[in-house]
Amino acid sequence: MTPRESFINALEGGPPRGRVPHFELVFFLTMEAFGRVHPCHRHYAQWHQMTASEQKAHLRDLADLYLMIARRFEHSAIFLQGGPGDEDGERRLIDEIRRRTGDTFFLMMHGDATYEIPAGDKMTAFCQWLRRKPDEARDQAARRVEQALARGERFRKHGGLDGWALCSDYCFNTGPFFSPKWFDDFVTPFLADLIRGYRAQGWYVIKHTDGNIMPILDRLLLGEPHALHSLDPQGGVDLAEVKRLVGDRVCLIGNVNCGLLDTGTDEECIESVRYALRHGMPAGRYIFSTSNCIYTGMRLERYELMLDVWRREGNYDAAAE
Q: pLDDT tens digit string along 16-75?
């Protein structure tokens, strides 16, 4: 299978074959790996002042970097984060990658519209608004979903994209930011509507949130996303337990401990990788990944160590093929 086919097979719960697919939501160590600035760290204020040839050259450069990451680290999927902020630029970037690689890689972008944990300086005002004007907050939540689905329809007509990663974060390591009542008032129905709407348009949908998701696990799955990322062990999320509870309903993506990759010993990192593979791989519906992303400051050699173990031990036996 191609990397894209392997990724989709896992999302759909098909028979596991070959090596378990791998991707990272974001790989920020592009300076360390390639001597190139990551797309998210570039400045795009002058995008609309560029000539057509300058824009084309810039899109080629972005596509180069995304493909360098995917090929070197054997990612099955590419999350397009960073680059021109308008839809025309995003569609042209998709086209450039497809032109070079065809359907080799699964392509996705951020497509969440639900309320998330606000920035620290906005938390008080946000909570006051939810409390004082709940009807207004729900109306706005519904409009955000409508706008996201309208965007989804425009991209569907254009073609080239495979799905959406819903990246609104809801949880701290200790639990959800919202109380159960507030989550059900302001997030749960809108998340379900968004996922169902995307699926009706023909998209694959991956729901991402860090932290301790266990109190809201069933709520995250109401709309039936294809996958759940990132199953954060630093938030007390045990992949084995999540696999037992919902592994027959949704593909799981994670959960190699980023904290250990950053500050643990090599032996602790290796054991975290083995734990994820041991409990994620049985019966398929699993994609190998860290519990967040490969973030700035992490040592590249730790990610490479993680991948060395995956290459040796992340393979389904011949009987499963």
A: 999 999 999 999 999 999 999 998 888 776 788 889 999 999 999 999 999 999 999 999
Structural domain contains residue 115: yes
Q: Which domain holds residue 213?
A: 111-229
pTM, 2 dp: 0.96
Alpha-helix runs per DSSP H in 107-238: 123-132, 134-158, 180-186, 188-200, 217-220
- Inside any domain, residue 150: yes
Query: What is the distance between the alpha carbons of residues 271 and 266, in angstroms, rounded to a whole number?
Result: 9
pLDDT digits (tens, 9 = 90+) for 183-197: 999 999 999 999 999
Q: How far is CA 41 from CA 44, 60, 63, 296, in A?
A: 9, 17, 15, 11
Query: 180, 125 in Cβ contact below 8 A?
Result: no
Neighbours of 297 (CB within 10 A): 7
> What is the distance between the alpha carbons of residues 294 and 75, in angstroms, rounded to a whole number?
13
CB 206 within 8 A of CB 232: no
